[in-house]
Design a protein that fits this description.
With 342 residues, the protein is an alpha/beta fold. 31% of the residues lie in helices and 16% in strands.
Length: 342
Amino acid sequence: MPERVLVVAPAWVGDMVMSSPLLQMIRQRHQDAEIHVLAPEWTRPLLQRMPEVTHIHAMPLGHGRLGLVQRWKLGSALRSLKFTRAIVLPNSWKSALVPWAAQIPKRTGWRGEWRYGLLNDIRRLRPEQWPRMVDRFVALGSDMWNQGEDIPLPRLVCDRIDVHRACERHQLNQSLPVVALCPGAEFGPSKQWPVSSYAKLAQACLSAGTQVWIFGSEKDRDTGNRICAELSDQNGHVFNLAGMTKLEEAVDLLTIPKVVVSNDSGLMHVAAAVAPSRALVALYGSTSMTFTPPLAPAATMLSHPQPCSPCFRRSCPLGHHACMVGLDVARVWSVVMQALTQ
């Protein structure tokens, strides 16, 4: 009987992208498997760009909502699909409810939040063995392939027609090289390089003859505007796309830039997955480049370590934000300039 796997996916953009290697490895080992993914509806554009996914099931509950009755009903509705196993990537108690209600015979996940009974294949996490998030995701499916295999890179496959349409919709062109800036971070301001630093970098890029495209969510729209306001000469070559694109458009448009500069954010992982050989400059402060690095061979990670970093706090608990404020623009520009001249 072919494998029919339900993967309960995470709810953050970056985490979703990092689930791609797990899906690829399941497909490599079980070519006839049906790989179903249960995830929030807004993540659909990411899953649609993962060729390994067979079916997408929308989780109707928002982040943080328990919704016991809804989860039970969803699991009951999935029973007829007769899944052979479930792999639960989030560590929360509630994330294991749907596979349990669906009566899936093997339900795998990491030990946490008293999930005994809901999961019947509980793994004990050893951080020293699985230091990265992607390693931990892949390890949950380790009995479905040979351990020791190389982990594939995250992969999002974009259609050229969709890319072209997104360019037309937002009146963008590729007459000049493009540098993409991703100045936001959904997690919180502690991850964000200062606006003034992004503005100085953008000015250097413009002076070097490039375009600058700013990406982000609606929450980052004001940040993009503040960057633009600090630029002395834009020459019509700066486009603040933050809050103006749908997620699928942002993913497709991120295939175009020659260089991407990003905080540790979901868009950083998207940029790595759509073009792994493209130059990517990832800026780290309050988070760990060991735990969630951009998984692309051409990525460069920069930081300004402090005794208190990484603190993994949403806002700087000491108020100085030195780990990001101290990251010099000249260091970032040197990496960008080298990429532009290659």
